[in-house]
Amino acid sequence: MNNKFIKIVALITILSLVILNSGCVASDEDKMQGELPTGEDNNTVDEITDMVQSITSSYSENDSQDTVYAIKGDTIILKLAENPTTGYSWNLTHSDGLELKEDNYELKEGTEKLVGEGGFHHWTFEVVDTGEQNISAIYMRPWEEKTGTENTFKLNVMVLEEDELIKGTGTISYLELEGGFYGIITEDESHYDPINLAEQFRNDGSVVEFVAYPRNDMMSFHMWGQLIEIRTIAEVSE
Length: 238
Description:
Blueprint: H1 2-34, H2 43-50, E1 56-59, E2 67-71, E3 75-82, E4 89-94, E5 98-107, E6 119-127, E7 131-140, E8 151-160, E9 166-175, E10 181-186, E11 191-194, E12 207-214, E13 226-235
Parallel strand pairs: 1-3, 2-8, 11-13
Antiparallel strand pairs: 3-6, 4-7, 5-6, 7-8, 9-10, 9-12, 10-11, 12-13
């Protein structure tokens, strides 16, 4: 009787240990899964930032002599004031890497019935090649000789290869240096100093996905991270 009782107790003990060990294994598994990295193993971020979409950028007289950035497939729209009734018009030229898609003139809205009123000349280009591209224009009467005093326009377009862009996910951080500024710290602790971060994204601690141009042609007095020019940016919802 005693031997039988001992066997029953031993069996119960063994079963208890098996159940307990099974529970421990399950708990450890759950802990490991919760600690799995969410960067490269989570394709949500990569799918968004790796798919660089074409964008449309518009420029005017205010952008003359500027250098702007683009990639192949982008659209550039140029809008310059013009008044053909005076005999003046824009004589425009462009490099081969910019393909002219549209060229039209329109009167200022609401002045269609007014004699002598001017309007705007619009040109639409598709970026078709990489490297240094440009648009130049001179405002003059076609039958007159150049005097050197004419109004002119020039836009330099640096067209980068897509793999030259900086893409990633990072946290907007306010730095109390040099009067204070906003930077982006990515998941791999890279520091980026955006020259054109829009007001709506200047929120300390918010997480964003961004695509940017490296601005190695410029120097920053912040001396904190790499200067970039934001191409596209979106806040990541929690």
